[in-house]
Amino acid sequence: MVRSEASHHCANSLRVIWPQILWTHFNILILTLPLGSFLFSGLLAGILYDMKATTTTGGGNTCIGPHCYRLVFIVMAAACLIGFFFDLLLSIRTKMLYKRIYFTENSNKNSLISSRR
Q1: Integer Cα distance of 30 and 27 in angstroms
Q2: Keyword set for this entry (predicted)?
Q3: What predicted TM-score, i.e. pTM, was given to this entire model?
Q4: Which end of the chain is less crowded, N or C, counting CB atoms within 10 A of the terminal residue's CB?
């Protein structure tokens, strides 16, 4: 009985805190999109491209062929795979949390209905 009351308290606390958490996560997400784009597509790709490129007589760097961006592709693919696995882990944990909250609420409703009879 104590455990279901604690779970019910947790569910009520989540309802109060969730909108604040949601906006915090949304703002962090909005901040990380351009930051990640700059770091990976701009800075990292430029540095790795310049490492593979050969210097030309005019003072610029030139690289022709798929080998120029191979390392950039591998790094970005690895970052995407890591992000995918973290997203998968988060969705599994969230699903388990919501199942626990749902079953706690239903068991509380059922106990209230049965106590009224």
Answers
A1: 5
A2: Membrane, Transmembrane, Transmembrane helix
A3: 0.57
A4: C
